[in-house]
Amino acid sequence: MANAVLPTVAPPPDVAGPKPKRRPKPKPKRQNLAGWLFVGPVILGVLFFQLAPVAASLVVSLTNWSGLNTPKFLAFDNYKELFTADDTFWPSLKNTVIFTLAVVVLTIGIGLALAVLCNQKVKGIGIFRTLYYSPAVTNVVAIGFVWFWLYDPDNGLFNSTLRTIGIHGPAWLSDTKTALIAVIVVAIWQGVGYPMVILLAGLQSIDQSLLEAATVDGASAWRRFWSVVVPLLTPSLFFLTITQFITSFQVFGIIYVMTSGGPNNATSVFIFHIYEAAFGHGRLGYASAMGWVLFVIVGVVTAIQWRLEKRWVHYDN
Amino acid sequence: MTTEAIRVYNRAPRHIPRRVVILAVLIVLAVVFAMPLLWMVSASLKPENEVLQSPPSFIPSTAQWANYSQAGHGLLPFFLNSCKLAALNVGFLLVFASMAGYGFARLNFAFKNLAFALLLSTAMIPSMVYLVPQYMLFREMGWIDTHYPLWIPNVLTPVFGTFLLRQAFRGVPVELEEAAKLDGASIFGTFWRIMLPQVKPALAAVGALTFMGSWNDLFGPLIFLNSTRLQTMPIALALFKGEYFTQTNLMMAAATLTILPPLLLFLLAQKYFVQGITMSGLKG
Fold it and tell me: Where are the transmembrane segments (chain B) (predicted)?
């Protein structure tokens, strides 16, 4: 499951970095055996551990399999139930969409600001980078511990602080009005590290002569940032919108440790709903149907993002 | 919030040096970001009666280091499990991802583009979609309640690692490789002795990300393991909570111990980490 944390995306062909200089050879020699020996393990791994199970799950989604019974073919009954008879499906989809939008936009925005700061030449910058990145290396159970305590309605740091200035704070995680926001705050806090590092790498590969040229032309720092730096970062920003979307839409850990989807489904997200169907209620067929709905949503949104790419992403060549 | 530093700089009176302003902004944000974890460390050192005292005090009256030895003692077997899994994940993933990355970057073989497209397309598949059949597969193979599902599938499906290393290999000058070939090196020898040393920062970046993914994985152990003795740090922390949930200071000490290894790793490796991502050409 480690690759759930390592989101990836197909590179646009022209972000591929410095291209190797190719000699004008008439026909490059084929190295079929060597080539397949090198990539074979990974291709077989993907086929065996991911693609075959994906295909199998489509079949399972058409049955009432529980893992123990003899599965009965139900055609599209699971899908019909999901869209028409499941009280949790639509609220959890809504929560997932709100969560994803907030997390994608804010982690990338704040990550960009932090990356700019971390790119300054200041003594001890490595320590600052580590501090900003520290939430990203913290496991969700530890995150649950500390934020649960910060959010505690009576003795938590937030409400104790609010009390000193005479405000009676909400119950945060156990109030249906604030629970989702409270979880989103934690997700953003944990989520900015990754965009920060990717954008820092992007900033460090910007050709300084472009910025110097803009300075000579009299552009202010503000203007240089928006007219030179940001356009040059758009390939990294594009990569991040795709990967952050895919991971946020599949949020599980934070919800699992902080609220378990409560109170009253206020923080129930899609993956959590699938997890409960599969491992709580043993409805493997139904869970597989939900998995496929999720797959289709992620696939469609990602395809739309690729279509919109050329409208805003600039490549140097 | 974006370019806070620049904005602040423009508004700041000339006599305040730019470096001072930047440093101030860096410190304020560091406090905001590190605050929850600093509170965790502070609580981990407090005597039990002080943790829930209201209003809370940040500095413990006495640093009770014994909390750490008590929490550490309980966590030790799980720490070893996490170390074992992290080592297997990082070691084998780097081997398979660098081989595949090199193959896709430099070798010329039938169906290469198709294979690469297939590999990248799997990044889009939510793991939940194949979880159920995967679980059944592992059950057939006798892998449930063993460590195998927590590393073998990961190291054989390193999509991000392969992608990053392919990009890094593409940036290595062709001349180096051709010189090795003229000297009579085999393809594998060229890959191992000439090409791998050229992409060390990218290997460090992939290794660090893999370590963190393995160390912090909640879902895998939660689903594939039943026995307590096999559990990893995050799950052990949850078990710890059940055992000591009245003693917040011990829980916080345990939580601090679980995040120390990845934090130290990032502190030491952050330069290579950023460099490795830059190498991949995922740039502006």
Answer: 20-41, 85-104, 116-136, 148-165, 202-224, 244-269
A46: confidence class by pLDDT, cuts 50, 70, 90: very high
Answer yes or no: do A142 and B107 touch at CB < 8 A.
Answer: no
Interval B203-214: pLDDT, tens: 998 999 999 999
pLDDT at A7 over 50: no
A85 touches B at CB < 8 Å: no
Distance from CA of A70 to the nearest CA of B (A): 14
Q: What are the pLDDT digits (tens) for B5-19?
A: 555 555 545 567 878
State whether residue A280 sits within 8 Å of chain B by CB: no
Query: What does the angle CA B128 – CA A260 – CA B53 come to, to the nearest 5 degrees?
Result: 140
State pTM to two decimals. Answer: 0.85
Mark A218-245 as b/e (b = at least 16 C-beta within 10 Å). ebebeebbeebbbebbbbbbbbbbbbbb
| A-chain residues near B125 (CB < 8 A) | 50, 54, 295
Identify the structural domains of chain B with CATH numbers, from first to last: 4-44 (no CATH), 72-279 (1.10.3720.10)
A131 CB-near residues (< 8 Å, 6+ apart): B30, B33, B34
Mean pLDDT confidence for A302-306: 90
**With 50 as the cut, is the pLDDT of residue A12 above it?**
no
Average pLDDT, chain A: 85
If you classify domain A72-312 with CATH, what class do you get?
A: mainly alpha
Contacts of B52 in chain A (CB under 8 A): 155
Determine, for residues B159 and A274 on separate chains, whether the beta-carbon distance falls below 8 Å: no
Domain ranges of chain A: 72-312
